[in-house]
Amino acid sequence: MKSILPNANKLGDFIKEKMTNGYHIDFHFSINEHGHHSKMYWREEFPKAVSWLLFEV
């Protein structure tokens, strides 16, 4: 999976690096290995992302 999403993985590595340098970032990285860049998959993932962003405590 790492070779499929190199920029996303670079971002994840960068954020994790910042967390070890005294910063705290509430970071959740989720990859659907069977997903495609399509409206169907966005429709499934978007409500979960909004819920996590706005309602998690």
Structural key phrases:
mainly alpha; 2 helices; 57 residues
Structural features, described:
The protein is mostly helical and 57 residues long. It has helices at 6-20, 39-55. The longest helix has 17 residues, at 39-55. The chain is flat. The N and C termini lie far apart (30 Å).
Write the layout of secondary structure elements.
Blueprint: H1 6-20, H2 39-55
Short account of what is shown:
Helix content is 56%, strand content 0%. By secondary structure, the protein is an all-alpha fold.
pLDDT < 50 stretches? none
Number of helices: 2
Beta-strand percentage range = under 5%
Query: Percent of residues in helical segments?
Result: 55-70%
- Largest sheet composition: none
> What is the CA-atom radius of gyration, in angstroms?
13 Å
Order of helix and strand elements from N to C terminus = HH
- Overall pLDDT: 78
- How many angstroms does the end-to-end distance come to? 30 Å
Class of secondary structure makeup: mainly alpha
What's the overall geometry?
flat
Number of strands: 0
